[in-house]
From TrEMBL:
It comes from Saccharomonospora amisosensis. InterPro entries: Epimerase_deHydtase (IPR001509), Lipid_A_modif_metabolic_enz (IPR050177), NAD(P)-bd_dom_sf (IPR036291). This is UDP-glucose 4-epimerase. The lineage of its organism: Bacteria, Bacillati, Actinomycetota, Actinomycetes, Pseudonocardiales. Pfam families: Epimerase. Residues 7-192 form the NAD-dependent epimerase/dehydratase domain.
């Protein structure tokens, strides 16, 4: 088989997708970029198709007569918009993945690379209990129903596990990605770091693991041509607690008892002044901390930045923006 592949990228115009598409094209692969929006600007040499993963007909059309060898499935709702709904997010995240998997199996695709998330493990006080708080790929996925993205990633991973059993001919690389930082990253997580004082729940370290966005792209590109299959946590070495992050930013923390924060969030949600309810304290207290040894030792990728170095690079980029 040639080193160059025919690759269909779902979510090809998204934050990660646009970089993955460009990198694969520059590496000489034949790239089909599928999304519901127009790329800005178009990538030379890349075929663009209109692809709505929630529509089986649209997915079938994206595969038709293209001899796709590898699918990079990135289409997902990471940060819902104001007009989003749980039903719409489920349709994209879960039903969309089912449609893409069906397309792969119907068209003889050899390999699928899926961007999952550390959120698939869920937010639980006993996360990583067998490994000092660090989650390995052998830990169960228990994405909380209270958080749409976490729950949907859990359902997607359960679907992928079933497919590995029933259709082993379709190779899988599943990437459970930690918190992504980069020069252009601006989202609900980084917004936490822009506050004058960082919120901390009393008695909780709330550690974060970070990975630089270009490293995620490089890992996805490697997964397209690698012979390695499996599930891999994607994060830099080490973690940063809220206190570590506050110290790096030269700021103080605002320490609040969990019962008080739950009460405040409940009132804010009821009055419509906050999109977050009392369940958010679970998200803040029990963040998944990803062990990356399998990424380095089995997949063969060693992140060039630790979590702390990725955060420092993000800080520097914000200062220069």
């Amino acid at each position: 088989m040639s080193e160059h592949r025919t690759v269909l990228v779902t979510g090809g115009n998204g934050f990660l997708g646009s970089s993955v598409v460009r990198g694969l094209a520059e590496a000489g692969h034949r790239v089909v970029s599928g999304d519901i929006t127009e790329p800005e600007p178009p990538v030379p040499g890349v075929e663009r198709v209109s692809l709505d993963v929630t529509d089986p007909d649209s997915v079938r059309a994206a595969f038709a007569d293209r001899d796709v060898e590898v699918v990079v499935h990135l289409a997902a709702v990471v940060t819902p918009g104001r007009k989003s709904s749980r039903e719409r997010e489920y349709a994209v995240d879960v039903t969309g993945t089912r449609n893409v998997l069906d397309g792969c199996l119907a068209h003889g695709v050899r390999r699928i690379v899926v961007s999952s998330s550390g959120a698939a493990y869920g937010y639980h006080p006993d996360n990583g209990a067998a490994n000092g708080g660090w989650l390995t790929e052998d830990d169960p996925v228990r994405g909380n129903e209270a958080f749409a993205y976490s729950h949907h990633k859990r359902l997607v991973e359960e679907m992928l596990a079933e497919s590995r059993s029933s259709n082993p001919e379709l190779e899988q690389v599943v990437l459970r990605i930690g918190t992504i930082l980069g020069e252009r990253v601006d989202n609900q997580i980084t917004a936490l770091f822009e506050k004058p004082r960082l919120l901390k729940i009393r008695g909780s370290d709330s550690p974060f693991v970070f990975i630089w966005d270009t490293e995620v792209v490089a890992i996805i590109q490697q997964a397209v041509t690698s012979t390695v299959t499996g599930i891999f946590n994607v994060a830099g070495d080490g973690a940063m607690t809220v206190d570590d992050i506050a110290a790096a930013l030269g700021r103080r923390t605002l320490v609040i008892p969990e019962p008080l924060l739950r009460a405040v969030l409940a009132v804010g949600k009821r009055l419509g002044v906050s999109p977050y309810g009392p369940e958010q304290t679970v998200f803040l207290r029990h963040r998944p901390v990803l062990d990356n040894r399998r990424l380095k030792e089995v997949f063969g990728y060693i992140p060039s930045r630790t979590s702390a170095e990725a955060f420092a690079a993000w800080q520097q980029a914000r200062k220069q923006a």
